[in-house]
Design a protein that fits this description.
By secondary structure, the protein is α/β, with parallel strands linked by helices. The protein is about 40% helix and about 20% strand. The longest helix has 22 residues, at about 280-300.
Length: about 500
Amino acid sequence: MKTRILRALAAPLALGTVLALSATTAPAFAQEQAEEARPAAGKIVPQVRTTQHVGTFNGSRVPYTATIAETILEGDDGKQEAVIVTTSYVKTPLDKSRPVFFIYNGGPGSGSVWLQMGAFGPKRVAIPSDARDDGAPPYPVVDNPDSLLDVADLVFIDPPGTGFSYLTQGTDPKKYYGLRQDARAVAEVIRRWINDNERWSSPKYIGGESYGTTRTAMLADELEGSTYNDVGLNGLILISTILDFAGREPTPGNEMAYVVTLPNMAAAAYYHGKVQAPSVEAIAQEAREFALGPYASALLKGQALPAAERAAVRARLSQLTGLSEEYLDQADLRVTSQRFYKELLRDRGLTIGRLDARYTGTDYDNAGEYPDNDPSFYGIDAGYTAAINEWAREGLNFETDRSYNSIGREPGRNWDWSLSSGRGRNAYLNVAPFIGQAMRQNSGLRVFNAQGWYDFATPFFGAEYSLSRTGIPQDRITYKYYDAGHMMYIRDEDRGQLSQDIRAFIRAR
């Protein structure tokens, strides 16, 4: 894969340079620019829109340039294969010593709207902060004083098949939809942005949410592990982390998924008043200790588990999760997350959310085994989709007839989850070793890990487990926790705290 960008369009000149050229060589410059911008027959010309703004972030007034731009990725045969949209916010006047933070979301198939319009961009969508759904329009787009623009320039990336980014007609999805394929494409976009903006010596941070943390591990390997054109990194910022996929929904024989989700069940039960504890931190710690000790031991013994030990484990499970011993016995001590969403508040006729267990929903009836839907997703999606379309089109002047894919189906349907094309079944997917390798080879590389207590999509204990394995330096990892779920920034207090925690992490380099 190679990348070609019309550089005269992709890297706007400073105002002083433009004025000087206008006064001295305007006709020649205009002719040269027109010739460079003229596309070959059937070729896409990348759109670049630049606007000037001023905002106040963390109490500091910051003038900045916003640029929404298309990057064209081409195959070795010169075919334009993918159009990738980035939205960058750069403080003016330009300061090349400032850090640059490259940001994306997850999915796979999710656009960067969530972190851009919910957490770190200069504007955000205003939706309820207290686990109520976002209701009907309008969804106000407001100033975001929690944006990180006071400490870093921000580049939001919509990977192939997400947001406004897309594959051109005839492009094989297998070339872009996959662990390694996606990382190579995003790494190329990052390298081109660094080149075009002359930021090779700037401190660099990469980070994302959910599958975006998986992408971050893959990118660390692509950017720092590259023999040529290596990009040094200062920090990896992981939000709602999933690196070791053994903690996903369990299959028969995979006991680890039950172990890493137990602390989430205890936290959710505490939030909804099903168990008592001094704090969510306290109940989470009790559940961690029980999960790694008696519970893991009991699960590994399988049908050889003695009756007395089973009874003791069942009783403690009930105390931690708020589920009845009868139900736990029927589930053979193994309660899937999907069953938990439905069972915890069945006596109230409610289900709880997967992305954020604070949210509750009402199903068609109360008799089912699983919830009809996730109230913590349908409670927020309309507001975010409306906000990114309004801001990109009206605030940044981006012109397109394409729909913004907040969560695109095509990448997920075509995703290649294989890490290697070599021999072996490669059944155990764990990308955490890439983070360990990057940290061992770069003594200045640090990791920030943010988790919500009420997130079942990427359990906090699963993140702790994957990042504590052999080969990952522990003294350069920062852990922070928040009183919300997968997208902790939805809660106003946690958005402010997350912003302050990452701001401190960047400043501490």
